[in-house]
Amino acid sequence: MNAIPHPSIRAVPFEHIRPSSVSTELLSDRQRHELASIATVRLLRPQTILYEAGMEADCVFILAQGVMKVYRELRNGKRRIMAFLFPADVLGLAERGHYCNTAEAVTPSTLYCVPVERLKESFRDNFELQFQFLCKVTHELRESQRQMMAIGRRDAPGKVAMFLETLRRNALLRDDARPGFVWLPMTRADIASYLGVTPESLSRAVTRLTKGGVIDSPDRRHIRILDAARLHTLAEPS
Amino acid sequence: MNAIPHPSIRAVPFEHIRPSSVSTELLSDRQRHELASIATVRLLRPQTILYEAGMEADCVFILAQGVMKVYRELRNGKRRIMAFLFPADVLGLAERGHYCNTAEAVTPSTLYCVPVERLKESFRDNFELQFQFLCKVTHELRESQRQMMAIGRRDAPGKVAMFLETLRRNALLRDDARPGFVWLPMTRADIASYLGVTPESLSRAVTRLTKGGVIDSPDRRHIRILDAARLHTLAEPS
DNA sequence: CGTCGTATTGAGGAGGCTCAACTAAGGTGG
DNA sequence: CCACCTTAGTTGAGCCTCCTCAATACGACG
Lengths: 238, 238
Fold this sequence. Notes:
Strand content of chain A: 15-25%
CATH superfamily of the largest domain in chain A: Jelly Rolls
Shape of chain A: globular
Number of domains of chain A: 2
Oligomer: homodimer
Distance between the termini of chain A: 50 Å
CATH topology of the largest domain in chain A: Jelly Rolls
CATH architecture of the largest domain in chain A: Sandwich
Helix content of chain A: 25-40%
Radius of gyration of chain A: 18 Å
Structural class of chain A: alpha+beta
Number of strands of chain A: 11
Number of helices of chain A: 7
Order of helices and strands of chain A: HEEEEEEEEHHHEHHEEH
Largest interface: A-B, 47 and 47 residues
């Protein structure tokens, strides 16, 4: 009756315990239950804003379903996408009790809203739970650094290659992969902003990759990877 | 007799507890003692490598004195600086039990080496301690995102402006500021790599800022900020 | 004082950005 | 169901900035 999965947090673990990478779920069933018990569920339609930069941060969110984006407004009215978030990601980590960027739903989304005070209480009683959060944030830090490498590059095709591989890795982490396909739930403008290029440059880059036989785009929301090896070569930081 | 300060971790706190920002030290004296008791101290001369990417990660490090840099090797032998680290910063957060980048001393440095197993034990007994680490990693994630904004920019002077403000903010966080001055312990090549530009472009950008009367560089390792307002305008993300 | 690595400056070329036009797709109302 | 409209996305021409390569100044050593 309740189709919403319990709160889940996934990440590449901090330690090297399990030799296989079968599961990247960090939380035990008990922890997921505990989180569910102190959280409220919220449904968001696309383009709905979950929180805005500067708002008082009373909750931490765990994305259960859907895709969200986190961005920062710039002076000139433009915005810069900082990250895309997928199920089992955490968002809403505050700075001095205030959110420091804006979160908006890309697709219909389901979130667990965990009051920070309650979460902290749970941390107090449950060391493992807090440790999993620590792992998750550490993971996000690494991902952010990886993203820095992508943004720092000069060539748009290379950026696109990195982006596709990141999405692919992300999907694999969630057992959500259709072989050879990458799903792009966000607009080109969002991708461009995320990669630090203009939509025009992004479009040209995709065109070049397509003409080069590396990828193929049956429709705007899907990319088929034709030559994974070449894509990987392109994605290698210059 | 022991001039080495106890382990310290500083960050902008997660919550908004203390109205004033007098202190950003996250650890209590007791926690600092606890960390000191399970850690070993290590001294590094400049250009010494603390750990390399891929090495088994048995320790987490807390920088007590000095400046370090963290970088990633690229295919073409070049390297990319991911971050500069200052006293009260944490480094050595692993991925699957292995370090995912290389850490090297920029200046003579003192580190506390905390075995991860011991640290985890302390986390188990001391919820607050783990919480402070969580705050610190969250802080680093935000800083990394800020850095992404800098790298994403197209104009070198703007990048430099952001870099100077970051260093300045960093120094203030540590009560280490000489009014109007920014200390650059790292080489121009390192800064350039960090900002995602060539050393030549960096040099030209600094020259332009100097000729524009925004800054002045008495020597290679110091920048004097002449027009903080204009610098801030330049640093504003475009 | 000479040497080596760091830093700056110059000339030329490549790539992305801007501006603008055009095409495709999705949504609405008749 | 189709015409219309609005937004998303693509393509083209020209400019601007940074990159590349090379040469020159600077500074920290011995």
